[in-house]
Amino acid sequence: MRIPLIAGNWKMNTTVAEAESLVRSILGRLDKIAGVEKVLCPPFVSLFTVSELLKGSSIKLGAQNMYFETKGAYTGEISPLMLSELCEFVILGHSERRGYFGETDEIVNRKVKTALANNLKPIMCIGETPEDNKAGRAEEVLNRQLSQSLNDIEPTHDIVIAYEPIWAIGTGKAASGEQSAATIKFIRNTMTKLWSKRMSQDLRILYGGSVTSHNIAEFISQPEIDGALIGGSSLRPEDFLGITNQAATIKLSHPSIH
After folding, report:
1. Is-above-0.85 flag for pTM?
2. Which CATH number fits domain 5-257: 3.20.20.70, 3.60.15.10, 3.40.50.300, 1.10.260.40?
3. Residues marked as catalytic
């Protein structure tokens, strides 16, 4: 049985003081929500502060990125050794990293390998551009991203895949529940070919892209979808709590959907 996961990606938002305030505003209520794994991913500068606040709670901590080397002359980069003392998860291959900073599938592959070698669980993002989607190339793109980003990586339950269609991220235009479920089913079938049917059935696959407390039920009620990677809504306490609570309630009341 796949445990649902809701991860909040704060992106380049919140000062350390704002991060502390945000965590304090949700900590007690978020901690009480059972049946779903909860992960907060603040900016690097707030990781230590947030990790101290989360001690003793059921809420996990994740980073938004990392470099594929453990140390060296890489000014401005963050090593997995620096993260592993604080975090359990790390987001890798986000479309903003791929688009704005030129990260390729090969780079994502190296990062995933390094994360796993340093006891970090990658939330590996994949997704097609609006142009690829309109041209009917979504499956081709996703197949390439999966095969190249996971090249030479042994099957493991420590990887989470997040499907984030780029045309839906931050646009307010989320894919429909049926659309995203069909694509995630394709991803799971692709993972059957890359790994095995058993591993693909155990693999947690999230949806991300303009998810709010008003539409989360549409996604989380789909059997193929195991949770969500939340952007803007994770910065709004009531919205993020509503998303997490609905995810837990729906999955617990319908165990057959996961």
Report:
1. yes
2. 3.20.20.70
3. 94, 164
